From TrEMBL:
Compartment(s) of residence: Membrane
Listed Basic and acidic residues bias regions: 1-10
Region of interest called Disordered, as start-end residue ranges on this chain: 1-41
Main location, first listed in the record: membrane
UniProt lineage: Eukaryota, Metazoa, Chordata, Craniata, Vertebrata
Listed name of the protein: Chromosome 3 open reading frame 33
Organism in which the protein naturally occurs: Latimeria chalumnae (Coelacanth)
């Protein structure tokens, strides 16, 4: 039965659905919190995670810290050795010789025993300034390893080397106060010459056994081959002591060594001596 509407009845509200709670409009003046801040509050705190990890693995952290400290001490000790000025062969550590370390020096003079060289250490601003207070002064006696110098070779060395000239010497052996080394000098720019090889290639010396190295070691045969090749170059080109005398020089030497000629010379000297009387 249909209901009749009269003028006095209120308007119909049956067709209006109630508004959902989530869709309610915010009141005017109400503060809206951004969703990003809520996400940050809900998300994990990075600092808290790191702190928790360190607390759980404190032993590992301590071990790493100790390892880094030891590594720093080792690096510092090596730096001190590299920046130490060696004033005698005894001051040089054994591992330097075993590892064939190459050092820098400055020539002072050439003697019958070898080269007197002042060691120039690596310069580090802080460490070097502290060590300069107690570094002693002295010269290293350096010999050319694997080379037997002739008289002409010593003269040639004096002509080639100048005081205060910088050189590099590679340690091979220590014998008392002397060091057997491979000596390198700069010829300008990036070009350097090994004096051991240069002397042999010019014929100013003979190859000699390389003391301090084992005969079956690789480095011994490598150095021996280099020195031998330098000596063979001098022999092929007839340089220095390998220079072949000319025909007149050979005749003169044969005359000087002839016993008959020597007897005649002595006889004439005897005659001249008695005639003057």
């Amino acid at each position: 039965m249909e209901r009749r509407l009269y003028k006095d009845d209120p308007p119909a509200l049956a067709t209006q659905e109630p508004m959902a709670v989530g869709a309610m409009r915010p009141e005017k003046g109400a503060r809206q919190e951004p969703e990003e801040e809520e996400g940050e509050q809900r998300g994990p705190n990075f600092i808290a995670i790191v702190s928790g990890f360190l607390d759980k693995h404190m032993n590992i952290v301590r071990a790493v810290s100790t390892g880094l400290a030891l590594a720093g001490v080792i690096v510092l000790a090596r730096s001190i050795r590299l920046t130490t000025r060696f004033s005698s062969a005894v001051d040089i550590p054994v591992e330097f010789i075993e590892k064939r370390v190459k050092l820098r020096g400055k020539i002072h003079r050439l003697t019958e025993e070898g080269l007197l060289v002042e060691h120039i250490p690596i310069h580090l601003p802080l460490i070097s300034s502290l060590q300069a207070r107690w570094n002693s002064k002295g010269l290293l006696l350096i010999r050319l390893a694997g080379v037997e110098l002739t008289h002409d070779g010593k003269v040639w060395l004096k002509e080639q080397l100048t005081p205060s000239q910088t050189l590099w010497f590679k340690l091979l052996r220590r014998e008392n106060s002397a060091l057997d080394c491979l000596v390198l000098i700069n010829r300008g720019g990036f070009f350097s010459v090994c004096l051991n090889e240069e002397i042999l290639s010019q014929g100013f010396g003979r190859i000699a056994p390389i003391e301090g190295l084992q005969l079956d070691s690789r480095i011994y045969w490598k150095l021996h081959r280099r020195l031998l090749q330098a000596e063979l170059r001098a022999q092929r080109k007839g340089r220095g002591l390998w220079k072949e005398p000319s025909r007149w020089e050979r005749i003169s030497e044969n005359i000087k060594d002839n016993k008959i000629i020597q007897s005649l010379k002595n006889f004439f000297k005897w005659i001249v001596f008695h005639v003057k009387k």
